[in-house]
Design brief:
Elements: H1 9-22, H2 28-40, H3 57-71, H4 76-80, E1 82-85, E2 88-91, H5 104-117, E3 123-127, H6 133-141, E4 146-151, H7 154-166, E5 173-177, E6 190-195, E7 200-201, H8 202-205, H9 210-213, E8 222-224, H10 229-241, E9 242-251, H11 257-265, E10 270-277, E11 283-290
Parallel strand pairs: 3-4, 3-6, 4-5, 6-9, 7-8
Antiparallel strand pairs: 1-2, 9-11, 10-11
């Protein structure tokens, strides 16, 4: 190819795909498209009608910088500042975990519980809200819900609040800075406590992909040597804040599934324990109900 060949959208995508593939990216073509669309200020689909167009030098410079950082392992979601979850677009920063499809199983379980119990104005607590995906999704799909979004990180709560405002549900979500439920008064009772807590063990942490291990917030991932330490603390606190018959929903790793079931079985506070599996048939969410008084 001649040095004078113009850098069209099509040529930029092909070169970047090959470049990122050579640096171990899992989805180099998708990464290239998302980053170029970000640089051009358009939707990804718009690239396909602009293959022969040549972006100006300012746009190419923005694109080169994004590609450089992606090659260093920075996740695409942090580079573009957003990620889709449950058909909604959420702002994300390095202060919060990047939303993952697996967590949608927890949202579906929450909505199913609301339907099963015919909650009209459920009180829901999202523990470890991060970017607010669970809290916002619950408020968005349950029009009468009052949601409490809890996180120990003030920076994460700021991101969650921005997402709630963007989706028009901030007036029904209370944001509380707290280590799990420790800062909530005992009188606060909920129909459902939902959480995607840290559940990565110390050994697993070292095996995570570089872009996760080196760029996502460690405190939102690492639970401790066993991976169950945070969940163990959460169980007792959740029992104190759940109404009798209230639902507990916790996202887990398949590696700690049996350990979490054993903890729930050993507790007299919970009943009707069940597991929800993901599309790969791996344990992804554990649900239980607060035992009736």
């Amino acid at each position: 190819m001649s040095e004078n060949t113009p850098w069209t959208v099509g040529r930029l995508l092909q070169w970047t795909t090959d470049y990122l593939k050579g640096r171990g990216a899992d989805s180099p073509r998708l990464d290239a498209e998302v980053l170029l669309a970000q640089s051009l200020g358009c939707e990804r689909i718009g690239l396909y009608t602009a293959f022969e167009e040549s972006p100006d030098e300012e746009t190419r410079a923005k694109f080169r910088e994004l590609v450089r950082r992606r090659a260093e392992g920075v996740p695409v979601a942090y580079l573009v500042g957003r990620r889709e979850f449950y058909s909604l677009s959420f702002r994300v920063t390095p202060d919060v975990l990047i939303p993952r499809p697996e967590t949608e199983h927890l949202v579906v379980a929450l909505l199913d519980a609301a339907k099963q119990c015919a909650w009209s104005e459920p009180a829901i607590c999202d523990v470890g809200t991060g970017s607010g995906i669970i809290a916002v999704s619950a408020a968005k799909h349950l029009s009468g819900a009052r949601v409490t979004a809890v996180d120990r990180s003030a920076a994460a709560l700021a991101v969650a609040r921005q997402n709630a405002e963007a989706h028009g549900v901030a007036d029904r979500i209370e944001f509380v800075q707290s280590d799990l439920l420790s800062e909530l008064p005992r009188s606060r009772q909920f129909d459902c406590v939902a959480s995607n807590p840290p559940y990565v063990s110390a050994a697993e942490m070292e095996q995570l992909p570089r872009e996760v291990r080196d760029h996502e917030p460690r405190e939102a991932l690492l639970a401790g040597p066993r991976g169950t330490e945070v969940i163990q603390r959460l169980l007792g606190q959740a029992a104190a804040h759940l109404k009798p018959g209230g639902h507990l929903l916790i996202e887990i790793s398949p590696m700690i599934h049996e350990a979490v079931l054993e903890m729930l079985a050993a507790s007299a506070e919970f009943t009707d324990v069940a597991t929800i599996k993901d599309l790969a048939r791996l344990a992804r969410v554990v649900r239980a109900r607060r035992a009736e008084a």
